[in-house]
């Protein structure tokens, strides 16, 4: 009797224990499932795909990191190294977006060299890049060379043209150069530097076949006739040695003191010492004496008068010096800010996520702001002088009109961007007492318009950081 009772008690306790374990396991499984997020929407970015760089704050996963089954692609430690990289191959392209039931946004990204591909946390605002990534300007506009024609590919089997400077955009690839020879000449039409490395590229087009065109590494770039080889390009020309029969020395001076010099050497065959230099006489870079002298003004100086070079070179003779008077120069830069924001589109007030506000600082990441070359030149002058009203007029008139924003803003799923226009009168009033070298201020009116923004590359050399 006692034996049977003990056995019954044992079996009852075992059953209770098994039930408790089963209940606990079920509870654990249920809690684990509740802890994992789910994807509620996915969409390709399409034309809104962006070049980005990682910030180093988040890892990359095969799926959004909080979703069940997500596996590590690159740890936070690895991503931090990529964020601090000085190589363009470690930029990424963001091309897909996923949103979870928690409202978190993830972007699918791929590195420019294709090594890393996966999802990274991008914040909580749909369509707005943030958190683990930020938009990247992979290239910057560079100064065009003084000579743009007559270049050759140094080695057509080795020096390749690219559809974009390598690794500055995803899937940049080599251009088909079939039939190109070392004798073919190319013309330069654009110049850019890779932001991370600072390396210079020229966009060149074959004079024989316009289909052969692309970007090529240009080393230190073409500077003057002494630049024979630079990167993958060459001019195959050697400047003759300077003699009294073929050269003129330009001396730059401030208040009678020499601050620089340069020697122009002609390729003309019938020159001799004492003979007057003509406008048709050129050097190996096809530059006249006047043009060469203009290009060689020492850094930090400007002409004392606008016709100083014309005056100095008009009666130049071979074997003699010409003297160009200059003054110490200072260059102002311009800070950009929002003055007014209009958010009415089609008669309706639209509220976008993270909208612009009055007094917000602007950069080239916000809009394709442009300033004409003449206006940029007007930013430089005698550092002791107040910028004149006429020069302020010239600078103000140099701004573009209806400048397109380069950031996309969202109200729900609808995409918008801003258009910008400068307050011309405000610019002239705000800077009326500024001297050359001071930072000027330009204020812009921002008007919200429908549609996603497009990226543009502009010259930002004149913008205050």
UniProtKB/TrEMBL annotation:
It comes from the Bacteria. Residues 1-24 form the signal peptide. Keywords: Signal. This is S-layer protein. It comes from Levilactobacillus suantsaiihabitans.
């Amino acid at each position: 009797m006692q034996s049977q009772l003990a056995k019954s008690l044992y079996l009852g306790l075992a059953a209770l224990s098994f039930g408790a374990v089963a209940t606990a396991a079920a509870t654990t499984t249920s809690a684990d499932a509740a802890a994992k997020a789910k994807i509620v929407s996915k969409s390709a970015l399409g034309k809104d795909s962006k070049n980005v760089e990682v910030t180093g704050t988040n890892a990359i996963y095969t799926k959004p990191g909080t979703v069940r089954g997500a596996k590590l692609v690159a740890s936070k430690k690895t991503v931090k190294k990529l964020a601090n990289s000085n190589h363009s191959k470690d930029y990424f392209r963001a091309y897909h977006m996923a949103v979870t039931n928690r409202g978190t946004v993830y972007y699918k990204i791929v590195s420019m060299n294709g090594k890393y591909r996966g999802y990274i946390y991008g914040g909580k605002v749909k369509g707005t890049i943030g958190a683990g990534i930020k938009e990247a300007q992979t290239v910057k506009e560079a100064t065009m060379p003084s000579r743009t024609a007559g270049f050759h590919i140094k080695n057509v089997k080795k020096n390749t043209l690219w559809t974009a400077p390598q690794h500055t955009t995803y899937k940049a690839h080599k251009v088909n150069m079939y039939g190109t020879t070392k004798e073919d000449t190319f013309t330069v039409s654009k110049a850019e530097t890779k932001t991370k490395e600072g390396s210079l590229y020229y966009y060149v087009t074959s004079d024989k076949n316009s289909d052969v065109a692309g970007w090529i590494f240009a080393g230190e770039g073409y500077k003057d006739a002494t630049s024979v080889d630079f990167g993958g390009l060459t001019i195959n020309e050697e400047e003759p040695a300077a003699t009294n029969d073929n050269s003129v020395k330009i001396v730059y001076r401030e208040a009678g003191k020499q601050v620089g010099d340069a020697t122009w050497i002609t390729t003309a065959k019938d020159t001799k010492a004492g003979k007057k230099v003509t406008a048709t006489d050129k050097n190996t870079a096809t530059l006249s004496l006047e043009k060469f002298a203009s290009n060689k003004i020492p850094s930090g100086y400007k002409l004392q008068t606008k016709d100083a070079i014309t005056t100095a070179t008009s009666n130049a003779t071979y074997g003699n010096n010409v003297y160009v008077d200059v003054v110490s120069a200072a260059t102002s830069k311009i800070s950009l800010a929002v003055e007014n924001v209009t958010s009415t589109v089609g008669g309706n007030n639209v509220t976008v996520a993270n909208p612009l506000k009055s007094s917000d600082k602007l950069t080239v990441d916000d809009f394709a702001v442009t300033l004409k070359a003449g206006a940029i030149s007007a930013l430089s002058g005698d550092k002791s002088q107040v910028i004149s009203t006429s020069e302020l007029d010239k600078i103000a008139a140099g701004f573009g009109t209806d400048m397109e924003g380069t950031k996309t803003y969202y109200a729900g799923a609808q995409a918008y961007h801003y258009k910008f226009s400068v307050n011309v009168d405000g610019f002239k009033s705000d800077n009326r007492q500024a001297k050359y070298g001071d930072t000027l201020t330009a204020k812009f009116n921002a008007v919200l318009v429908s549609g996603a923004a497009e990226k543009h590359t502009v010259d930002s050399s004149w913008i205050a950081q």
